[in-house]
Design goal:
Elements: H1 8-20, H2 25-32, H3 36-49, H4 70-82, H5 88-97, H6 106-115, E1 146-150, E2 154-155, E3 161-169, E4 175-181, H7 186-200, E5 205-208, H8 225-232, E6 236-239, H9 249-262, H10 270-286, H11 298-301, E7 323-326, E8 332-336, E9 339-342, E10 351-358, E11 361-366, E12 369-375, E13 381-389
Parallel strand pairs: 1-5, 5-6
Antiparallel strand pairs: 1-3, 2-3, 3-4, 7-10, 8-9, 10-11, 11-12, 12-13
Helix pairs in contact: 5-6
């Protein structure tokens, strides 16, 4: 909340006196820049405890059972100084070998190292292993997994570039989307996905490569705006290994058929090309027998998903978290005292949760994932070594 620390008590006292004098709560809250919830909170404190209720209360937990003992922190730092190239996992094993009865979690050890400046800042990897899906061979039913990719671009006869965006159902090979786009920007792909979800329902997961706009190699955990939105919708994000298109072999094989049937030669313009894509989609789904389906058509093996596209995005369940913040345009997150830390533009507009793990050290989470930590002293975000599921 925006009270200035040096004059917080005087401001709160003045706020309460004006409220008691008959001024309206809503108007006072707007003037002081606080929410009505905060205003009523300090009114109740004043009524219960007088002026002492307007003092800042400690944010520390009532019990400190989960706090790492100082002796153990010193031992972790001593081991790190002894083995400077070792990370939290190796130090955890070393603590166990040295007879430590209660070994902190990997994340806690990493947090301790980061707090004391013992974490080396490395370049982020091109793609995060948490999203890689190696050698997918089978799916058990329709809409368990969709595959998404761009068929290589080509020029129409009027010299306009065409980028065919394709989405198939992994189980049935059903071609859900075949749309010729003018470029590979994120927004047209987002709109195409929205149309597909509303027409066909939503899958459990979507498999793609790591490139833009499906991924963002230089961003946090390779997350693009599209992948963040998929996670928000409860759709699992899966990625092939970089440089291994064969891991999405069924989809690539469809691309070969698409290319032979619709681009040799290309149509005069994008509208005419889209007509050919539409005709191909109908033939591929409803007429063309598929050997892997015992010569049946993809349409005979596919059905609409029971997972409906929501009219509004579901609100994440953050009830066990300390704070909830919306990410500003450009990826900034307001923590305290009007100071921001940078999370990444892919999260713009998304609600994230923060949990104070230690004095001034906050864990940052999005949906079911823990992303990293931010320190109130520096307001610098430090990502996890790898994306981990958050205990809910």
């Amino acid at each position: 909340m925006p009270w200035k620390v040096s004059v917080a008590v005087d401001q709160r006292k003045g706020f309460i006196l004006r409220l008691k004098a008959g001024e309206r709560m809503s108007e006072l809250c707007r003037e002081y820049g606080i929410s009505p919830k905060t205003g009523y909170k300090f009114l109740k404190r004043y009524e219960d405890s007088g002026e002492s209720g307007l003092l800042d209360k400690s944010r520390a937990p009532l019990t400190q059972a989960a706090r790492t003992p100082e002796r153990l922190e010193e031992k972790i730092l001593a081991f790190k100084d002894r083995y400077p190239t070792w990370g939290a996992r190796k130090l955890s094993e070393l603590l166990s070998r040295n007879g430590e009865a209660s070994v902190p979690t990997i994340n806690t050890i990493h947090r301790i190292l980061a707090k004391h400046g013992r974490v080396e800042h490395k370049k982020r990897r091109v793609a995060n292993p948490a999203f890689r899906s190696k050698n997918i061979q089978s799916s058990k039913e329709a809409n368990e997994l969709w595959c998404m990719d761009f068929k290589g671009q080509f020029k129409t006869q009027n010299n306009q570039l065409c980028y065919p965006l394709t989405i198939t159902d992994h189980f049935s090979r059903y071609l859900l989307t075949c749309e010729g786009l003018e470029d590979t920007r994120s927004l047209p792909v987002e709109k195409a996905l929205d149309r597909a979800f509303r027409e066909y329902g939503m899958p459990l997961g979507i498999l793609s490569d790591n490139g833009c706009p499906f991924g963002a190699p230089k961003a946090l955990f390779g997350l693009s705006r599209i992948s963040v939105q998929l996670i928000r919708l409860g759709i699992k994000v899966l990625r092939i290994e970089p440089g291994h298109p064969e891991q999405n072999g069924r989809h690539e094989r469809m691309h070969l058929t698409l290319k032979r049937s619709t681009t040799r030669p290309a149509s005069h313009n994008l509208l005419q090309q889209q007509e050919r894509f539409d005709d191909f989609q109908n033939e591929y789904n409803n007429e063309r027998p598929h050997e892997a389906l015992a010569m049946k058509t993809p349409a005979s093996a596919w059905h609409r998903s029971h997972r409906e596209m929501p009219s509004t995005l579901p609100t994440p369940d953050y009830k066990m978290k300390d704070l909830v913040r919306n990410v500003y345009e450009g990826g900034g997150v307001l923590l305290k005292n009007r100071k921001k830390f940078a999370l990444g533009a892919a999260f713009t507009g998304q609600p994230i949760a923060l949990t104070e793990e230690d004095d001034g050290i906050w864990k940052v989470s999005f949906m079911q994932y823990d992303l990293g930590y931010v320190d109130e002293k520096t307001y610098k975000f430090e990502p996890m070594d790898e994306l981990t599921l958050s205990p809910m």
